[in-house]
């Protein structure tokens, strides 16, 4: 064997070893990203007219900055989602500092995500000056997790995420407030990468486009005409294609 070819073989082996180490050290991080990606994909299926989705945003907070996996702003409230792409048995007390993941006897402790998410809600609450009651925190685990945590808070698997969001049907904000909150979040977001910047611009143009469509008297959901209707709780604009389209907006 020539010395040149043995050097190449050595380099290939070295690269392989480095790659294996890199994967081992970044495993948790990569898994975390995959989890966030899966959640983003589910959130992308929500109606673009009613739900404004922010993925992986960094906001200024009392303690410097706070990174939040997902925020969904809607007239039904503000969903604050913490993702844990863990599988196996998940257990811990609602008020404990840490929870445990047990995968075939391999135990791993992590910070109680309810507490972690409470911090995220606090940051948003201070930014938007809203009561805690309008925030809807959700902790979401992999579909292959068995959640043994006793709590009435939303600690769910990916499979239940969409339903957990769409079951909330009581309106707590006007469309104008929703637009206002989105703008405040976008302004406060600390941009680190080009991707998040592009994402924020998308949300901004969605909010704007929607408001312009409504101003022109057009339903942003189906393109139908908006007509003035009088209901039990006052008058509002509703889509002329009712009942096939149930879009409404406050006067
Ligand atoms: Zn419509």
Describe the structure.
With 251 residues, the chain is α/β, with parallel strands linked by helices. The protein has 5 helices and 12 strands. The protein has 2 domains: 3-215, no CATH class; 218-251, no CATH class. The chain has helices spanning 3-43, 113-128, 161-166, 175-188, 194-215; strands at residues 51-61, 64-74, 77-84, 88-91, 98-103, 106-111, 135-141, 145-147, 154-157, 226-231, 234-239, 248-250. The strands form 3 sheets. A 5-stranded mixed beta sheet has the order 1-2-3-7-9, with helices on both faces. A 4-stranded mixed beta sheet has the order 6-5-4-8. Strand 4 (88-91) and strand 5 form a beta hairpin. Helix 4 (175-188) packs antiparallel against helix 5. The termini are far apart. The structure holds zinc ion.
Number of E strands: 12
**Rg over alpha carbons:** 23 Å
Oligomer: single chain
Shape: globular
Q: What small molecules does the structure contain?
A: zinc ion
The number of domains is 2
Tally the helices: 5
What is the secondary structure topology, with strand pairs?
Elements: H1 3-43, E1 51-61, E2 64-74, E3 77-84, E4 88-91, E5 98-103, E6 106-111, H2 113-128, E7 135-141, E8 145-147, E9 154-157, H3 161-166, H4 175-188, H5 194-215, E10 226-231, E11 234-239, E12 248-250
Parallel strand pairs: 3-7, 4-8, 7-9
Antiparallel strand pairs: 1-2, 2-3, 4-5, 5-6, 10-11, 11-12
Helix pairs in contact: 4-5
